[in-house]
Amino acid sequence: MVVERKPEIEGTNIVLLGDFNPKIFQPAWFAAQELIRNEEADNAKIELIHQAFVQFSLEWLRLEIHQNRFFAGTHQSPFLKVLRDLVLGTFRILKHTPIRMMGINCDFHFPMESEKAWHTVGHRLAPKDIWNNLLKEPGMRSLSIEGHRPDDYIGRITVRVEPSSRIVPGVYIHVNDHYEIKDQESSIGCDEIIDVLESSWDKSISRSTEIAQKILEE
Amino acid sequence: MKSVKRKPRNFNPFQLAALSGSTAIDYMLSEEGSSTLESIPKEYQVSSEYQLSDRPTESSDPLSKMNDSDDQDNISRQKEQVVHLKPVTFIKSRFIELQKWEGIVLEVSEDSFIGRLINLSQNDHDSEAEFSFEEVHDEDKSFMMPGAIFYWTIGYKEDRGQRIRASMIRFRRLPAWQREEIEAAKRSAQNIKDLLQWK
User: Once rounded to an integer, what is the mean pLDDT over residues A155-172?
Assistant: First the structure.
């Protein structure tokens, strides 16, 4: 029987690449659109609001917007769908915002029961047979594997595995689920990418979780 | 695996790509990273409204940067740093989930509502539950109507080392125009139904 591992730290974020006007994205705007609570907007921790860059956080959300990049992330699993709803709602309102690419990114820090178990993961993903002849005491520092998408969307899935810097011994796994619109030259607005977000979210999250679990399966 | 030593670093706001956990080139600010930094106007350097740290320090928060290896991609940018922001920190509380459901409101009464629940944590049959208005945040009450979607999570809330059992209900928030569209569609469907006199 395979036991599902629980990550000790996890985070999920949505990154959109396109053309944005950062100054719009202030807590008060989100509250006025009823995308967050007024109380949350009032208590927002604002790092910077500038016409080229906005950064603030709520208890469950971090937002960073540049002129060509929109980042919304949470590290609290109860808010995964709330995060998705926030991004969907934002760009259903701002539907003329040109967005060309999207990444649904999941980060996991898994504790390992022992250093031996921790090393086993590294040996299994990056066998040392070749490296033992080339380096002294080789160890896996970072491994990235990219795969084609299993659906009809344009994009790729990239998985990165590293020793965790937060939990020792622990394994860090990052899954980047990357989507692109069909025609970047002639695309107007963001309906295509936002439709993808709405239809793919559940599958993307469960796939990323499954990938992380399978990597650690003995 | 190699253990990773923590090292002090200057916080670079443009490590934000790394903060997301992704270092793929697409998620960098620009493929011409250094020219983007040089083009930032001088207003970035001083803000009268927001605190800037003269000497940024490594954040102690575990999520300010997902993993140390991300540093490697941004070492070259540190010399061109123009703004030192205080390290980004999440508020130091988190919710440890035990079980979660997605629900749809079936019925709203004077002081409670009944919802149909889909268990998201386990493959289980749907169930129904009654929730007191006391469990709903005041600002979410306006969303509480038949057909509304909500998320219910039970678990532990950890705040500054204190752990308490918690139940959290959050209603799905759609833009106001989208809610109106849904209501209009429902009214239209009802009109058609009445017209056809379907029972």
Answer: 96
